[in-house]
Amino acid sequence: MTPNPITESHARLEELVPLYSAMRRIRQIELEIAKRYAEQKMRCPVHLSIGQEAIAVGVCAALKRTDQAVSTHRCHAHYLAKGGDLNAMIAELYGKSTGCCGGRGGSMHLFDTGAGLLLSLPIVASSIPIGVGAAFGFARRGEPHVAVVFLGDASLEEGVWHESANFAARHKLPVIFVCENNLYSVYTHLDDRQPSRPLTKLAEAHGIRAQHVDGNDLSALLHVMSEMVDQARNSEGPSFLLADTYRWLEHCGPNYDNHIGYRTEDEFNAWRIRCPVERLRNKLEKSGLWNAAREDTLTARIQTEIDAAFRFAEDSPFPELRTAAEGVYA
Amino acid sequence: MPDASQTERILTAAEAILEAQDLALARDPNVYLMGEGVCDPKGIFGTTSGLVEKYGPQRIVEMPVAENGLTGIAIGSALVGMRPIMIHQRVDFALLALEQIFNNAAKTHYVSSGKHRVPLVIRMIVGRGWGQGPAHSQSLEAIFSHIPGLKVVMPATPADCKGLLLGAIEDGNPVVFIEHRWIHYVKGTVPAGYTPLPLDGPRRIAEGDGATIVATSLMAIEARLAAEALAEAGVKCDVFDMRVLRPLRTEPIIESVRRTGGLVVIDSGWKTGGFGAEIVARIAESCLGDLRAPPVRLGLPDHPTPSTRALMEGFYPSSDAIAAAAGKLAGASAAQIDRAVSALRQQRAKVSIDQPNPAFAGPF
Lengths: 330, 364
Description:
The structure holds 2 protein chains of 2 kinds. Chain A is an alpha/beta fold. Chain A contains 12 helices and 8 strands. Chain A has one domain: 3-Layer(aba) Sandwich (Rossmann fold), CATH 3.40.50. Chain A has helices at about 15-35, 55-60, 75-80, 85-95, 130-140, 160-170, 190-195, 200-205, 220-235, 265-270, 275-285, 290-315; strands spanning about 70, 115-120, 145-150, 175-180, 185, 190, 210-215, 240-245. In chain A, a hairpin with a 2-residue loop joins strand 5 (about 185) and strand 6. In chain A, helix 1 (about 15-35) packs antiparallel against helix 11. By secondary structure, chain B is of the alpha/beta class. Chain B folds into 2 domains: about 10-190, Thiamin diphosphate (ThDP)-binding fold, Pyr/PP domains (Rossmann fold, 3-Layer(aba) Sandwich); about 205-350, Rossmann fold. Chain B has 14 helices and 14 strands. In chain B, the strands form 3 sheets. A 7-stranded mixed sheet of chain B has the order 3-2-4-5-7-6-12, with helices on both faces. The model of chain B has no long low-confidence stretch (mean pLDDT about 95). The interface of A and B includes residues 70, 119 and 134 of A.
């Protein structure tokens, strides 16, 4: 499977500078979580997005704040790229009352409706119909918003994906399915789970337009996504964006795990050199749009923000035990 | 559609349900219906007939055969301001949607610390008779009542079918609305106009100090018939139609048991792990010392529902079994119990076991 090549001319390089910063920010936040995870103050499972940042940033850059996305267990990058509040995210990982769910959800339930991240859900494919339902609601209420469903390659094995795609196509809903193919469901390779055929065919079988892009190429993602968003807003129905990428760390947790036997160091290294962040930096540096000094400034600025967010989480109170039974019903 | 201009009408429960949906659709443009067959010529046993002609296919949405996906779609639409009503012609089909109902509909309000709401009504119909068999007749209210965040309603009268359904559609929470297919035939007085009822729990439908009988849905009708026959024989009992199983309100039942000292619960579903077991447990926790005898549980026996009527004798609790159990707890004489049981058996002697008892027709 060779993704459609997208040439640089499709997106002006200067416009990519803030998106590079956004990717760097997500990478640095995720690395900080990994670094501090051993402190055992973030006492919930974490599924880090390191290696997959370009998809989150490229997709969300084509959206408005009022568009709503839904995500999965691996939701940190989507939440941040869509504009979710960092303090509320870190506080949620700490289980604090100031977390985006007040500590009730943890890392797999990030949401910030104001920023357009409607919800994230841990059960594989569970959020797919929620995103389609949001698009259905937008269409019925005559609102101009677009819904985006982030899903993984394993989601395509779930029946609910097909149920949702069928309905989205039948009703020409303004929804874009973004499939991040990182090749693994936990430790199981795609080839052990699915027959060999283009994943895009699964969308096309439902009458949904599909495109295949390099998921570590931010400008390619932005280009294709912008086209799909225009089509959705013009009532031309749903699209499916397949983006190849790679999960650098273990499925769940802060560590590298190439040594445990389900994948090889060689495979990892082949993807490591395709790092979405480094690739864009190299490109920007060659064009004179980025340099070491700017990199240092950016790193320092992000670290200040991160330190403040962790301080906010540490200083925030836990929810009071007496509130545990509150809010079961509206 | 029923004539809404009259204030006092006798309607069937099916007509009352249709009227409730019609009123809700007319009142709020965010309300929409979705189900397999909502637009077809049978119109979900007549409960959606005429609605697509009146409101169009944008609001009366014929559903692909995809229960879990469409439940998630209903939830997603509710999160952005819609008020979906989803309909399953049998409870058994809703089993495909448990992931979305349990994980997302029930929990999203809580998990979001109140920022999200899921105003969703899921109508599910319990089949019975005419060989419905093992996977077309399950009354699974106990499973749904187990989940915090869901509300569970089981109406037994046309007035409750209308009022509680309107109340459910107005509610800001996911409501599982379980209708017994045989309740659809029941007739009763239904107020005209937009008349929602609060989802506020049990109602006493017969009064007496002999024993306390607690039942849901069709079994509340059976219990009412049993109490009437016992009253004819000189023994009066309290009968509670549960109506709302979650959130569960048991205060009136506890008050009654304190007075009567006897408890009979009748499940519409299986006795083991059934909803009646929860009632018995609550009574044991609250007023065990007031019970003069062990509580009696009636419900379905521990096997799947066979299709053939040859295997159905005694499968469903009936009014005579309820009268016998309640009469004994109430201290009635053998003659009194015999009189009530005989009258009830005579009442349905000519009806095949797989068809509704004409006594269910009401009006109630």
